[in-house]
Design a protein that fits this description.
Oligomer: single chain
Largest sheet: 10 strands, mixed
Distance between the termini: 17 Å
Number of helices: 13
Radius of gyration: 20 Å
Helix content: 25-40%
Low-confidence stretches: none
Shape: globular
Mean pLDDT: 97
Structural class: alpha/beta
Order of helices and strands: EEHEHEHEHHHHHEHEHEHHHEE
């Protein structure tokens, strides 16, 4: 069977809202990481078969197929195409899956997969705000089929996070302890230089801007998002700006271009769950991936699960039986930020570097996504 290799994976520092990347045009953010991955790997850009990028809320500066626009803005060959993917928070992880599937099918040999998001310029759900002028209050408003199946109940990530915390009996205190740990781990990782190999600086953006000096006492003083709820802003991911990219190669391309791959794709899949819970799909998606591969969670050395909200991670740990010491060991999106369309390949870069740092073999990445879906990618360090 043919193989898909990860040759390199890079990202910008993650900027906080209004931070060092907030004024950068999204196309230029994307161009920056594309150019960087081309330069770091030494590939001939004319040999790239496709550029696949994730991006959410593709309006304004993120419209017009930003994968293609970013490639061209990087000054690279016009004959190379590009396509933009929206699988919500897992968009760039899905970009990796589509790229890997193209290589496995034999229709491509070199793919640049990644993602970009400037949430300072284009806020989350901006596309829905624009949609209101055309008479759509929510994405499902007016849909007969949706209403017949799910009624008119609220569909939101905040409600989903509350429902997960309640179903898996995760207390507010446990949520805040995980959030504090995320900040502490992230600050320790930055101080130790663990992100240095994956970060390509951009102007004044030289380091991740998200981690805060906080405490359980500060978190406990915050108001909950809904009455009698457990969720506060302290246990949610941060609004962020950033871009990320990696190079995928076939076995033939590795030999032809003299590339030195760092990992291979061992498994990729996606699964869905209740869209009202919305954020619970990493659980069945992980169960499916482990069953398909014959691996157990004990075989996985490092896990990156996106910290959209703390209950997503804690419910997953409970259900899967994972060792918390292996999960988000360098902090997660609560501390480091969640630039939507860029998060998947950003986490892939972190996962790859941590496997190399620790000598681990298998790494697992999963992300909850709007609509109640989740991707799982398992990579094997070479």
């Amino acid at each position: 069977m043919s193989e898909v290799y990860i040759v390199d994976a890079i990202r910008t520092p993650i900027g906080k809202r209004g931070g060092a990347l907030s004024g950068v045009h999204p196309i230029d953010l994307g161009a920056h990481v594309i150019k960087a991955v081309v330069e770091r790997t030494g590939i001939d850009p004319a040999e790239v078969d496709d550029v696949i990028f994730g991006c959410v809320d593709a309006i304004g500066g993120q419209a017009g197929n930003i994968a293609r626009m970013s490639w061209l803005a990087a000054g690279l060959p016009q004959h190379v195409p590009g396509v933009t993917v929206d699988r919500q928070c897992g968009s760039s992880q899905q970009a990796v899956h589509f790229g890997a599937q193209a290589i496995l099918s034999g229709t491509a040999d070199l793919i640049i997969a990644g993602g970009v998001q400037n949430m300072s310029q284009i806020p989350i759900s901006a596309a829905m705000i624009v949609g209101q002028q055309y008479g759509f209050d929510t994405p499902s408003s007016g849909s007969v089929g949706w209403t017949e199946r799910y009624g008119d109940q609220e569909v939101s990530q905040f409600k989903g996070a509350e429902m997960i915390a309640e179903k898996w009996d995760v207390s507010r205190e446990d949520l805040e302890k995980w959030a504090l740990q995320s900040h502490e781990r992230a600050k320790a990782a930055i101080a130790a230089g663990r992100f240095d190999n994956e970060i390509v600086t951009m102007g004044d953006a030289t380091v991740d801007e998200g981690p805060r000096d906080t405490s359980l006492e500060k978190m406990a003083s915050l108001n909950v998002l809904v009455e009698d709820g457990r969720m506060t802003a302290a246990v949610a991911s941060q609004i962020s700006d950033g871009a990320s990219a990696l190079l995928l190669a076939s076995e033939e391309a590795v030999k032809k271009h003299g590339l030195k791959p760092r990992a291979r794709i061992h498994h990729l899949s996606a699964r869905g769950d209740d869209p009202i819970f919305m954020l619970s799909a990493p659980i069945p998606a992980t169960q499916h991936a482990l069953e398909k591969t014959g691996l157990t969670i004990e075989d996985i050395d490092i896990v990156e699960i996106n910290e959209a909200f703390a209950p997503v991670v804690l419910a997953w740990i409970k259900e899967i039986g994972a060792d918390p010491a292996k999960v988000n060991v360098n902090g997660g999106a609560i501390a480091l930020g969640h630039p939507l369309g860029a998060t998947g390949t950003k986490l892939m870069a972190t996962l790859l570097n941590e496997l190399e740092r620790t000598g681990g073999r298998y790494g697992l990445l999963t992300i909850c996504e709007g609509g109640g879906t989740a991707n799982v990618t398992i990579i094997e360090r070479l």
